[in-house]
Write a structure and sequence with these properties.
260 residues, disordered C terminus, 78% helix
């Protein structure tokens, strides 16, 4: 059961960094991809409701941590509150902007999405730096935390732009291809996805998961319930993909054909 819990935790964090990380990076690139209101509306429209579904993997990961590794949750959250608070603040600001956007908000909500996405990406970077530090229950010092946060934020941004090359059309698509290359598509997104998935796995390898696993009876009770959430999230992903469609590139202009 311990192995199942560790694999489930790793899989949920990897899925969030790949799927949710693309949304965060796209939010960071919103001013570049969308130069006017219509273009920003198109680029931002790719974030909602996809980000809600993608964040389900993070919520499931937190639930697995709380259910199967409760002692570790208390130790890490108590020691890393200084980096977790900005991370949560970025998440709240970003989601406020997304919800406001969905309700027809103006430029202010776009600014909230961009600022929240940048803060969230940097927060994840500093958190990962703290986890891999020698003392993983304390925030990483600025000498290592700040460069790591900046580097991880750039990875989020690159992943978001690669995702934009698959999800957008028109001028935002052309701007994304300026950074990813004219032939960018699934290969570039697969490369950035592999890097993003590796981030939480490499950092989580330093956590004392096996030493802090919950009692076997607790796992036998809660773990099956948590596992049942996986097919529900996969079904939500499939439904979201069917609704949004999977448009293909139209050569040589690089535009995607309009849906009938």
């Amino acid at each position: 059961m311990e192995l199942v819990a560790v694999v489930l935790l790793a899989g949920c964090f990897a899925a969030y960094f790949v799927l949710g990380g693309a949304d965060i990076g796209l939010g960071m690139a919103l001013p570049y991809l969308g130069r006017d209101r219509a273009e920003r509306r198109q680029a931002g429209g790719a974030l909602w409701p996809a980000s809600v579904v993608h964040e389900g993997w993070l919520l499931l990961a937190v639930a697995v941590l709380a259910a199967c590794f409760p002692a570790l949750v208390g130790e890490v959250s108590g020691g890393l509150w200084a980096v977790l608070v900005p991370l949560l603040a970025g998440w709240l600001v970003r989601n406020t902007g997304l919800c406001w956007r969905a309700a027809g908000g103006g430029p202010v909500c776009d600014a909230l999405v961009v600022a929240g996405s940048c803060l969230l990406a940097c927060g994840w970077g500093w958190t990962l730096a703290s986890v891999v530090d020698e003392e993983s229950v304390r925030p990483a010092p600025p000498v290592t935390g700040a460069p790591t946060a900046a580097g991880v934020a750039l990875l989020f941004l690159a992943h978001g732009v690669s995702s934009a090359a698959l999800r957008l059309t028109g001028a935002p698509l052309r701007r994304a291809r300026v950074l990813t290359g004219q032939q960018a598509g699934a290969p570039s997104f697969a490369l950035t996805s592999a890097v993003m998935a590796a981030l939480p796995l490499l950092a989580g390898h330093r956590l004392p998961l096996w030493e802090n696993v919950a009692h076997g009876s607790v796992q036998r009770l809660l773990l099956p319930l948590l596992i049942c959430a996986v097919p529900l999230l996969l079904a939500a992903q499939a439904r979201l993909r069917r609704r949004s469609g999977a448009p293909t590139h139209c050569e040589p202009c690089g535009e995607r054909p309009k849906q009938p």
